[in-house]
Structure formats: structure tokens, C-alpha cells
Amino acid sequence: MLLITKRLGFSSAHRLFDPELSDDENLEVFGKCSYKGGHGHNYKLEVTVSGEIDEKTGMIIDVKVLKGIVEKEIISKLDHKNLNTDVEILKDTMPTVENIAVKIWDALDLKIEKGKLFEIKLFETNDNFVTYRGR
Ligand code: NI
Fold first, then answer.
1. C-alpha to C-alpha distance for 79 and 131, rounded to whole angstroms
2. CATH number, domain at 114?
3. Each residue of 109-130: pLDDT tens digit?
4. For residue 128, what pLDDT is reported?
5. What is the 63 CA–ligand 1 centroid distance (Å)?
6. What is the CA(43)–ligand 1 centre distance, in A?
7. Could you list the active site residues?
8. Is residue 53 situated within a structural domain?
9. What is the three-class DSSP state of 132?
10. Which domain holds residue 95?
11. Residue 124 CB partners (closer than 8 Å, separation 6+)
């Protein structure tokens, strides 16, 4: 299997909390991530596409094209935004790294015109990341 990956970044704010829980209960479940002011992350996103090599171009998909799709569909919508309140694709979604990765997959899946979306890796920090390969 042949895979190609484009890595991009975005910086966003979020707060993990359940409005139906008390502050103490939220602290119990979400820890520091529940603090009222929210906090930010420098996310790293890796989008991996699988496919065959096009005989003419020698590529699965032109990474410049892939980059353009991810910038248009994801980065421009999430970068420097509040993920709790200001992002349409995350509406009514707890902005955990897991949920964000799934929503990114859903937003990109049908937009990849060459090859097939294979995997999303979303790094919230250097040490915490999610891998999603669709349902
Ligand atoms: Ni966080």
C-alpha cells in the first residue's frame, strides 16, 4: 500500500466542560481543561491519502493540491478560532482531540479527488494525538 501524508498546523482555543455538570464535577472529569478561561493548543494535523501512482504525474495526489484542500476545508475554519463556539463543523461537539479528528475526517473525506483518505492524525501536543481511519 502506498500512502502520502501532508502535515499542517493550526492554533486554536478550547475548553472541555459539560454545562450540565457543576464546576467541581467538570474538574473531576476534565481536569485543568475545564478551567473557565479556556486554553490554547498548537495542533498538528497529518492527512494521509492512499492510492496508485498516476502514470503521467508519478504521484498519488499532488501534495500542493492536498494542502490546498486541507487549508480551505480545515485550517481556514479552525485556525485562531474558539473551537467551542466559532467553528461550524464542531457545532454541538465537545472539542476533544478525538472529536475534532473525526469531524476533520468527515469534512475532508469527500473533498479528496485523487486517491482515498486513509488516515487523520491530530496532535494536540507532542505527546497526545489521535489516529482515525474512518468508521
Ligand atoms: Ni486542551
1. 20
2. 3.30.479.10
3. 999 999 999 999 999 999 999 9
4. 97
5. 29
6. 10
7. 33, 80, 124
8. yes
9. strand
10. 2-10+40-132
11. 41, 43, 97, 130
What distance in Å separates the CA atoms of residue 123 and residue 97, rounded to the nearest whole number? Answer: 8
Tell how far the Cα of 94 is from the centroid of ligand 1, in angstroms: 11
Specify the pLDDT at position 41: 98
Number of domains in the chain: 1
Does residue 30 fall inside a structural domain?
no
Assign 1 to helix, strand or coil: coil
Q: How far is the CA of 83 from the centre of ligand 1 (A)?
A: 10
Distance CA 118, CA 134 (A): 8
Residue 24 counted as domain residue: no
Give the Å distance between the CA of 34 and the centre of ligand 1. 9
CA nearest neighbour of 103 among 69, 80, 73: 73
| pLDDT over 90 (residue 135) | no
Ligand 1 midpoint to CA 16 (Å): 7
pLDDT tens-digit readout, 65-103: 999 999 999 999 999 999 999 999 999 999 999 999 999
Inside any domain, residue 25: no
The answer to whether residue 61 scores a pLDDT higher than 90 is yes
